[in-house]
Amino acid sequence: MQRRIFLAGAAVAATLLVSSCGGTGAGGAATNVQSQDPADTRIGVSLTSQDEERWITDGRAIQKGLEDLGYQVDLQYANGDIPTQQQQVDQMITRGADLLILAPLDGTALAPQLQAAVNAEIPIISYDRLIRNSPDVDLYVTFDNYKVGAEQGKALLTGLGILNKDGSEGKAKGPFNVELFGGSLDDNNATFVYDGGMSVLQKYIDNGTIVIKSGQTKLSQIATKDWSQQEAQSRMDNLITSSYSDGTTLDAVLTPNDSVARGAITALGNSGYGPKHDKATQPMPITTGQDAEIASVKLINDDVQYATVFKNTKLLAAQAVKSTQALLNGEEPELNDTTSYDNGAGAVPSYLMPIDVVFKDNIKKLLVDSDYYTTKQIKAGQL
Q1: Predicted confidence band of residue 37 (pLDDT cuts 50, 70, 90)
Q2: pLDDT in tens, 299-326
Q3: Global confidence as pTM
Q4: What is the extent of the structural domain holding 321?
Q5: Fewer C-beta within 10 Å: the chain N or C terminus?
Q6: HSE (CB half, 13 Å, CA atoms) of 18?
Q7: CB 322 within 8 A of CB 341
Q8: In a domain, 1, yes or no
Q9: Where is the Periplasmic binding protein domain (predicted)?
Q10: Mean pLDDT of 60-87
């Protein structure tokens, strides 16, 4: 039976009928969670890795939010290893998890664990990364990843002068040499980000305003395994050697997140590109990003990276906590999208968080005034 969010009416009815044993769990299965005190309720949280700053921030925020409500929290990081994540989720279920919040390394790799959760009547929240090819997902909390890509594309065009910041046509006509980078193919978000970016850039590629000198435009060609900074640096090194060793200037790079951006920027810096105030051989290409990681915010402030998409993961974590409480109470979690995120087994009910684009001129407004970072942290490039 395909699992779906409880309808509010069904939850109320279930509560009335079986108040001693709770309401309806994921997929319509009975669950005892509703009758439990939060102190007796255990939440398993599995995140991808501590190698990226954002996942550390997510983990802390989720854990604090849940513990403030009185829940027990089993927070684990898979450290980029799929078998490790599988083992950790298995252990969470064995230890009696009442709900799971999962950010999968590979959206298709947790099938045995999902089945075990179904058998144990444990609701599942897919966090930021979508669990693929499974009907056993109760809720997906994430950002609008298609919009993330579209905003990256717009930022790139703005940096080149093709568009003005208000979206109107700019004066620059090109042609401009641009290269494209994508995210990791095992992460469903990479496809949405890529599709969003290409929805903005494709017409400029088609009319010759943008030239992809390498000819690499398909996601399968431009993907960056594990969103790795090192992988991005290596590919950019190869692109510079293969397509730009003749002295042709690279004008912009569409990079899907900040770690990939920093990898590309490192390779470009090693090849003589740099900010204008450094009197580099060639100006640093316009580069985009995602996550507003502190190291990249410093690069933006220093005129090295051009922009990043700010996804306030503290708000995402808060939404996951709010959704957890609703599910455990037999209530319908808040939704704002029920069609966009088809995981291969059907559309997963979702809550999409808002995003903002960070440029040098709005760092203070978006990141400092909101208390996300301090001016001192941005200047140092570290927390």
Answers
A1: confident
A2: 999 999 999 999 999 999 999 999 999 9
A3: 0.83
A4: 8-137+312-354
A5: N
A6: 15
A7: no
A8: no
A9: 43-332
A10: 96
